[in-house]
Amino acid sequence: NGGGMNWGGFGGDNGGGMNWGGFGGDNGGGMNFGGFGGDNGGQSQIPDNNGGNNTSQNENMIKIMPAGDSITFGMGDTGGYRKYLDYFLKEMGYNNIDFVGPEGKNAASFNYNGKSVTYDDNHAGYSGYTIKKQQGGYGGGLYEVLKEKNAVKQANPDIILLIIGTNDMNGNRSTSDCERELHDLIDYMLADMASDGMIFLSTIPEIGGGMFGGGADRSAQIASYNATVKKVAEDYNSKGKRVTFADIHGCLNGTADLGDGVHPNAKGYEKMGKYWAGLIDEYLKSSKPAVTTTTTTTTTTTTTTTKAVTTTTTTAPQLKVTKEGDVNCDGQLDMSDVVLIMQALANPNKYGEEGTAEVHLTAQGKVNADVNGDGLTVGDAQAIQKKLLGL
């Protein structure tokens, strides 16, 4: 990921800027040698034989594939955001999470808040990689390495967390080229994963000074690329494709959370892990089957024999509150209900009753949402939030 230039043999993301292991291959034959400031601090990473699927026989497992470049790999803090994500998901009660991918190992550990924590280390993060392989570039392409390893089809993830583009920006590539290549990468992923899977396409962090940042102000460049990322995610979403936007850039405090100008420091990775955990938790809760309410309609027929006229009166179904404040009808009252109200009010075409978004307001949800009894307003969101806070 080196500061606006190709570092080749001078300490690139993959340890010396070179992939060792048969003198070729996308990841040195599955082993990264980081003896010169590489991602893994000089430790070799040998993938497990099962392709990172710890529990392929357990259909109840939720399989998550972290995919991307050295930020996904975890340069600067072994395990990166992945170890924190694993930890926070378990703290939320998710004990059925399986991180998958062709790299890493089934179990690793780190010290967190004074205790040893074990996490699932499988992933698909490749140091120095761009979206697609670039001629003359020192790294490979994420698109090519995943296809070569048949990574998505083999791991069969339910969720892909995709953060890619930092090395493209360091190479001063155009956002239009990146947009086209993001489509190629995502099209491949969608084709090889289950139809009910979800890709979270994320923005990238800032690029600052330090060893790899180069020192130049890249804020405008990063903002332009991140706007492209959002556009790509929304393009897919508007067509009913299972791709949604995520904003890692927004959860970090600019360059203050970077360790070397490109890669987050431990605090930055922790923030990323916490952000991903919240997003995944919200997604999994909203993906639960909706509560179905059956309403019986009564039809009354009145006949006047003198004129032989039949009048049929149908009583319209009257929806009743199934659970006050349960806007998304998942049977629970939480912040996702507050979020859906605000989304429906701000963008009714997408999140309202006739919205195009996968999760949008339904007629039943609207009835549940009107806790103040005066129609759907911001006041309902505030009332639900107060209830959650016990106020």
Automatic annotation (TrEMBL):
InterPro entries: Dockerin_1_rpt, Dockerin_dom, Dockerin_dom_sf, EF_Hand_1_Ca_BS, Ester_Hydrolysis_Enzymes, GDSL, SGNH_hydro_sf
Stretches assigned to the Dockerin domain: 320-391
Taxonomy, superkingdom: Bacteria
Residue ranges of coiled coil: none
GO molecular function, one term: hydrolase activity, hydrolyzing O-glycosyl compounds
GO BP of this protein: polysaccharide catabolic process
PANTHER family assigned to the protein according to its UniProt record, in alphabetical order: SGNH HYDROLASE-TYPE ESTERASE DOMAIN-CONTAINING PROTEIN, THIOESTERASE 1/PROTEASE 1/LYSOPHOSPHOLIPASE L1
Protein name: Lysophospholipase L1
Organism of this sequence: Ruminococcus flavefaciens
Taxonomic lineage of the native organism: Bacteria, Bacillati, Bacillota, Clostridia, Eubacteriales
